[in-house]
């Protein structure tokens, strides 16, 4: 089987410039002994086994280190689809069968599909052994390389604090959050999401070109600087939830969210009046 890259960069190509004359800043590989530039074809890999002493390694050396490991994708185990935390996933590849390997490929894909499992495998790529998850997606198998356990940072210590805050949340707040989730749940449509910031940045670039400000260093505005210095604006999550519910309800032509909120306010007002009357009676 062979690997085909499943992801591609979609970024604006920016160059580094010297701000003194705005000339491009280049990168060069140079010989540290002679200071002369080294062409890419003359570069080889080496391992420093003693200070200043290297053993040269070619692609053939990497292959001979373990011929089988460099040629095969070895399935080690199978796990449930939700068993691997998202932060372990790294780079996706489309796994394509070699000639005469279509039958085995189709069998594995169907087995993964029906069992609702992921295959965990190991293989060697670019002089490094990888662990990966194999999963069926449409009619192909996607191989997604995984990070090793030692590459994962310890979890932030927020569990206890978050649990305490959640315990203090009112029933109304939770109901509103659950309603928002329900209102905004729909079929996953990846084509609906595009990099709008990239378009906005290109507009900003075009504005500077038209205004003749190609060599103008834009300084930060005072307000933006103040926000950065103070750590940014605190977001009122409840206001955002209510706003989202109102917008969603308006888009669907119903006022359920607003009505529920007004009803909830009336209930709270009635409860406060009853409490006040009870206290007055006790004092009397």
Structural overview:
The protein is an alpha+beta fold and 284 residues long. It has two domains: 1-150, Beta Barrel (Ku70, Chain: A, Domain 2), CATH 2.40.290; 170-215 and 222-279, no CATH class. Helix content is 38%, strand content 21%. The chain has eight helices and ten strands. The protein has helices spanning 59-65, 102-115, 159-167, 171-183, 196-210, 222-229, 237-251, 256-283; strands spanning 2-5, 17-18, 23-24, 45-50, 53-57, 74-80, 89-96, 117-125, 128-137, 140-146. A six-stranded antiparallel beta sheet has the order 1-7-10-9-8-6. Strand 4 and strand 5 form a beta hairpin.
Draw up the topology in text.
Elements: E1 2-5, E2 17-18, E3 23-24, E4 45-50, E5 53-57, H1 59-65, E6 74-80, E7 89-96, H2 102-115, E8 117-125, E9 128-137, E10 140-146, H3 159-167, H4 171-183, H5 196-210, H6 222-229, H7 237-251, H8 256-283
Antiparallel strand pairs: 1-7, 2-3, 4-5, 6-8, 7-10, 8-9, 9-10
Helix pairs in contact: 4-7
């Amino acid at each position: 089987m062979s690997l085909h890259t499943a992801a591609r960069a979609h970024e604006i190509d920016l160059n580094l410039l010297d701000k003194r004359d705005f000339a491009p800043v280049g990168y060069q590989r140079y010989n540290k002994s002679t200071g002369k530039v080294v062409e890419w074809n003359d570069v080889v890999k080496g391992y420093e086994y003693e200070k200043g002493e290297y053993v040269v390694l070619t692609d053939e050396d990497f292959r001979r280190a373990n011929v089988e490991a460099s040629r095969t994708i070895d399935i080690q185990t199978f796990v449930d689809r939700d068993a691997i935390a998202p932060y372990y996933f790294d780079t996706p590849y489309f796994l394509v069968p070699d000639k005469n390997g279509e039958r085995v490929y189709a069998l594995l894909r169907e087995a993964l599909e029906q069992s609702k499992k992921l295959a965990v495998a190991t293989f060697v790529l670019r002089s490094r052994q990888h662990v990966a998850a194999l999963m069926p997606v449409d009619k192909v198998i996607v191989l997604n390389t995984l990070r090793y356990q030692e590459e994962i940072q310890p979890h932030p210590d927020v569990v206890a604090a978050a649990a305490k805050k959640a315990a203090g949340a009112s029933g109304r707040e939770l109901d509103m959050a659950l309603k928002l989730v329900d209102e905004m749940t729909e079929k996953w449509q990846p084509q609906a999401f595009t990099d709008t910031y990239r378009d906005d940045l290109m507009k900003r670039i075009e504005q500077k070109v038209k205004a003749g400000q190609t060599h103008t260093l834009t300084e930060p505005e005072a307000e933006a600087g103040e926000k950065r210095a103070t750590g940014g604006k605190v977001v009122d999550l409840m206001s955002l939830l209510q706003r989202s519910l109102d917008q969603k309800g308006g888009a669907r032509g119903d006022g359920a969210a607003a009505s529920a909120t007004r009803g909830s306010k009336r209930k709270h007002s009635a409860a406060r009046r009853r409490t006040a009357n009870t206290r007055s009676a006790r004092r009397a």
